[in-house]
Design brief:
Helix content: 55-70%
Strand order of the largest sheet: 1-2
Number of helices: 12
Largest sheet: 2 strands, antiparallel
Radius of gyration: 23 Å
Strand content: under 5%
Length: 285
């Protein structure tokens, strides 16, 4: 007897090459026509299962962030890192404090002298290598009006979009902020959530915390606490505060609360160093 899963869900054929429904993976079809014909009957089940599969990915623990290539300690959030426009590497600000040579420790290129040289190096990384890190930084400069670049929100969005298409998770995070605030784009919460979901699945704890806030404000306490737990386990203080409040309100169990506290401390301890603590006291320009 042939299994239902090994026959076309629309016509029942078994002697053809079958392809699974790309959204739910529950049924198979022999061609596009069969899939289209079966869509009205399958749509509700497909949508439900697709949402379940997406949630499995969304609420899984994200991959560990890369290490700083100099000190080999896990990189802190983007605002505590420095981009090397000569070779496209991000280093922690703690290592930036310790660098005393006038050349890059990776590619031996002399350090840039002023905004014009920096912009030239950044442009080279973008034009020659289509570097997502350089595109992300360019977007930040357009957004903030820094490094001799005038504020231009549409160009910031364009740069972040290009960086996100090349896999830059933190660019997705910044795009989410832009869609919430309406900077350079029309306010669109759905698009903001989309970008934050991608960023969260790549380990950007700020994006996951924002998702938790949106779920909490929508009355979805269980989903909100899940986001806060993952973000807090990655060392994010605001998410830990959300978990503390959830525990006081009875939305988080004692065991989960204690587990998050331990993971939060371990995550923060893992990324600490004397040099990084010293760098936090410096106002970078």
């Amino acid at each position: 007897m042939t299994s239902v899963l090994e026959s076309c869900a629309a016509c029942g054929k078994t002697d053809v090459n079958l392809k699974s429904c790309g959204s739910c993976m529950l049924v198979k079809y022999c061609n596009v026509d069969c899939q289209t014909a079966h869509r009205p009957a399958h749509k509700k089940v497909c949508k439900k299962r697709a949402a379940e599969l997406f949630d499995e990915k969304l609420f899984a623990m994200p991959p560990r962030r890369e290490d700083c290539p100099i000190c080999c300690i896990i990189l802190p959030p983007a605002y505590e890192t420095t981009f090397k426009p000569c070779c496209g590497k991000f280093i922690c600000n703690g290592c930036r404090v310790c660098l005393t040579r006038d050349v890059c420790p990776f590619c031996n290129t002399p350090n840039y002298d002023g905004d014009e040289e920096y912009k030239a190096m950044l442009s080279k990384r973008i034009n020659r290598f289509n570097d997502p890190g350089a595109l992300f930084m360019l977007g930040c400069h357009y957004n903030e009006g820094s490094c001799g670049i005038s504020v231009d929100q549409p160009k910031a969005i364009e740069s972040w979009c290009r960086a996100s298409e090349l896999g830059c998770a933190v660019a997705h995070y910044r795009l989410g902020i832009a869609y919430v605030d309406g900077n350079g784009v029309e306010i669109d919460t759905k698009k903001a959530v989309h970008h934050w979901q991608i960023a969260a699945m790549e380990g950007i704890e700020h994006a996951r915390y924002n998702l938790g806030c949106i779920e909490y404000n929508s009355g979805n306490d269980d989903r909100a606490m899940k986001h806060f737990m993952i973000s807090a386990k990655y060392g994010y203080d605001k998410a830990l505060q959300g978990i503390k409040e959830g525990f006081m309100e009875g939305k988080v169990t004692k065991d989960d609360f204690e587990s998050v506290l331990r993971a939060h401390k371990a995550s923060q301890d893992e990324r600490k160093s004397y040099q990084r603590e010293s760098a936090k006291k410096i106002r970078w320009v």
